[in-house]
Amino acid sequence: MNNIKRTPAEKWFDLVNLVLVLGITAIILYPLVFVVFASMSDPRLMYDSPLLLWPKGFNLQSYATVFENSDIWRGYLNTILYTFVGTSINIFMTVCGAYPLSRRRFFGKGFFTFLFMFTMFFSGGLIPSYLVNQQLGIVNTMWVLVLPGAISAFNLIIMRTYFQTRIPVELEESAYVDGCNDIRLLYKIVLPLSTPIIAVMILFYGVGHWNSYFEAMIYISNRELFPLQLILREILIKNEFSDMLSIAVDEQYAERMIVREGLKYAVVVISSLPLLVLYPLLSKFFEKGILVGAIKG
Q: What is the pTM assigned to this prediction?
């Protein structure tokens, strides 16, 4: 096979593209790198240079101070629990809703799809939602954070569309001929072929639960049930550092402000770490052609 010789213009085009991609990548990644380096730097040296390309005066005291705070650990465990339970409920309910709506034989699927889509644009509002949750007896419990949002209409439509367009009709018909019912078809054929969309839904729902704090701020008054993001809100916005800065109580105000900045960067890194680990693990499913070769001829 003869190799096609590239022209100088094509080579320059590739070079310009490479430079642009590297530049955009650096712009996107630098804020994250800055926060990581700032969290490991001596807070008193961070302000000597506006740009951090490496830790200034390597120091992990901010992390040690954060981990000494019991509220951080309790919030971490609560958030992990809420994320795991909530995402599990979300995936189960979304699959149960999307699969019937994707079936051609399901009578009234257009009407039910409209009802789901209607909730994307109109809702009862905060006060009616609070009254409903109060009447259900789930206010100030874990369930108020995972049950009211059990299904996202947007994600339901995405999964329904995936079932309609990516699951071959011939495969379903052959399964029916072999004696499969709808439940067995869903469990044995549809779900194994839907790994990419399930991974995307896990990511969407999981990130939503992990970053959620507004619902907890409205419905949760028991501090033992606070998620991590609500604890971080107190630290980053309300500046409640009294327990974490006992060593700096007698220092000057400016000194305390410097130490607080180091703590802010440390808690941001700690709260973002699970998501930074989750993204690479699930990204491989986004482009994986799992249906290639599912049908022959």
A: 0.78
